[in-house]
């Protein structure tokens, strides 16, 4: 038997990728590569393969006699440094006030022991053959510089210290030269010192501060008592992590992680229209400022209680509230905010100094004016999904999404950072010294606005760091601009109102203080008086109503955006006229959600319905053989003639044929007395929850649809093909790739092989796209199935589905598909006048049994041919 390394090498040469998730071994391979023999061999050697793959997943020390790459995060900062040399933007300053006698010699010795332990603090950066690399120096001695302000008048010392700290924070580093860490001590008196540590972000992050303080405390204490360092040797260094990350995050692993974020964020991320004093495009510097505020303890406790009650974290509640604040400022319902995470999800990285922190992009849909509780559910889902996908470096996401670059210094994917700081921060326990945090203003802004919150015994401290060219400390004459103090005040007011009325709709939550409301009322009264005086001087002019907000979007259920609901804000909105002016909006909403329910419009007749469908899609399809004409419109059909007590199962319209409508509209003329819903399926979701092995099988085998056109059982061929000339039918079948056979007196059987999965032509997303439920005999109720089988041979059944090679579809596959449909469906009762618009590839539909009269009419448009549709390219699965 081949050794396992050679066996895996041969598999890799076939372009087969293997990876581990839990105890399962998964694969990705070109179609047809995984033969039954190879699959058996892999299964037999699963234990060996798992052992090798898990070894590869361990961060191992690497030789230092080779070029050492930068981590992804480091490379982003290195590139930023090349674009903007001599910048202090990524300096990371730490300031601590020490009360008591500080031994400078022991401090310096402790700092240098930390530098000796952590290679990253002895690292510089250069290029070899055009590629950035790390250069680790064997030795580095860091000198602690001492600045003595103790001789100054006491009232000047603090001011001088603040000024010196700011100058130190703004002194640039040269990444090609050591050191990338500076340590200073400001002596305010013999018993009071301020310790300043400034490090470049490329070797350091927020978590690293805690590591340094912990080690500094241990080492200073040991050296104070003339003892050796008690700290254990570090087994791996940051450079080892960088090499491991580069080796791990490539190929299939990288593609999988990119796929999630591409789908989650999509394209065209919105730019928030923040209440700034000038457009961000006019800002060229990172000059910033910061202000801190306290959310009082009683309010903080109420927020925590609401979070516990709703099953969300404190961060999620604060984030949701902050997004409501931005909604009220910007009037934008698509809010994108960044947050950072420590990204230390491996035990071996927890004790390292280095740049592990990653940025996550959180995109939340605030449309539909949900209650705050409903918004919390959306934020919870968005946040948990992001936390489940933390490993993709921010710089790789930027590279993949390729956002349009702004001339400003705004981060490429978001403008606002929102962080709840909960990184463990140990106390600095030095003999004879007491530690107090020293607050000073760090005037560097990496984002237009960054809000950092910290939970304390006094409440929640919020620090607002902002670009001072965009925001001011307080309100100014520009009524649109909001000062930072005002924003913080509005945030606190909003939080107070949220805990009092969490069921309130977010648009109704008040952010203004009582004083602001009184001032606003006075200004409105003055403005009205002024306008009355000038009214007679105004020349009447016509206005364009097309830009007015005539509709609102909402959802049927909290947390479920499928379908999106569009409703009028006035009784006299003409749906067809509105649609003509808003085709792009409708198209975008349809591609985003897959289904739109138009509810509450005054659409009363079939003709009005057809006018609306035609306004969205001028070329409605008028030659569909499966549905009867209504006689009330030119291109409108009645719904499928099928017994009212039977369900029509889920299907994508005409997906078993060579062409189909991309858009379908249903209009409720008369809802049933009971039942009669049109349940729908999210085909993107269905594709994702299909087991990987089944997806691969369906992609390979496809489906064969067999149909017998027999009188009194299904539509006869003359009605379906709209001809009584068999030669016309035969020509049609040949052109469409359909095999056909005439038998008996006047019966026809057709067979057509069609994909079970497809790729949407506009979104590029993979979808579960077929008619297996509608055609396969297994989905009939037992009584009907037994009745048909007693009358017909299986080959003569009106409809059935096989694999593309003609073999039967296994019962367990049928059961799995049925389960997928059950997990993906949504249903709602019809109301008279409702119009449901579907993307036929993003959404499958059915019909529930009903009692009483029911009239639903249908329109279809944007016919698409199978030649224009791609199939999912990759073959994936689980071995065992």
From TrEMBL:
Residues 568-859 form the TauD/TfdA-like domain. Residues 68-519 form the Condensation domain. The keyword Oxidoreductase applies. SUPFAM superfamilies: Clavaminate synthase-like, CoA-dependent acyltransferases. InterPro entries: CAT-like_dom_sf, Condensation_dom, TauD-like_sf, TauD/TfdA-like, TubC_N, TubC_N_sf. One of its GO terms (molecular function) is oxidoreductase activity. One of its GO terms (biological process) is lipid biosynthetic process. Keywords: Oxidoreductase. CDD domains: LCL_NRPS-like. Pfam families: Condensation (PF00668), TauD (PF02668), TubC_N (PF18563). Residues 4-55 form the TubC N-terminal docking domain. This is Condensation domain-containing protein. It comes from Tolypothrix tenuis PCC 7101.
